[in-house]
Write a structure and sequence with these properties.
alpha/beta; 13-stranded mixed β-sheet; 20% helix; 29% strand
Length: 259
Amino acid sequence: MKIAAAQMNCAPADVSANAERAAALAVRAREEGAELVVFPEFTLTGYELALLAADPGLWLADAEDPRLDPVRSTGIATAVNVALRTGGPRPVIATLVHDADGAHVATYAKQHLFRQEQEVFAAGTAPGRFELGGIRFSLGICFDNHFADVPGAGAAAGCRVHLASSLYGTGDGIAERAAVHPGIARDFGMYVALANHVGPAGPWTGCGGAAVWAPGGTLLAEADAHTPSVAVAQVPAEGRSQGGSGGLGGGLGGKIAHR
């Protein structure tokens, strides 16, 4: 299976515009042979915490929210990150996975909230896992990937690919982007697909570099630092994986303040 990691320049709080931008990248990924594409954190709004806190209309109702239809109708499986309503007063930061037919497959809510996110969102408590084409996937959202419990639990459950919807900026985020994700691939023996922002993203500027790493940390595909695009790589059949497999006692136990 080929998978793709997307990088986007999001229009602040413009759900319709961002859905169309994501859909165009999904079509591009499909045309390059990918069967799944993962998008960055807050795909449909950009990283606009103040606007998200002030306007619940920016929160998606559920996985069937019609504002996702442009992406769900692209003929490729998608992992789109959004602010999602809950039964309580606060939304969660959630990745919604749909298959190539647009059917809902999985929902994962971010467990490790970063700084001011804690003032707006509720934290998730359940792991995010799903299977597609005989391959098991795990999900992490940005700061989640700085904690060993998120990818480690996926690896322990037999997941071969870890999907990271993220925002890394042009400051310290450049080095952190390049260290954390190949570290997951090395320490947990997984393929890792990182989606990121390019251009303005709330208080940051996304540094791009959407990428896919093989188990062992070998870089398979990487986008540039500034162009909305996709990085596409092959996940071989079981038993033909590239790179080495690390143990599950990896070195990601400490958290890194990023962006």
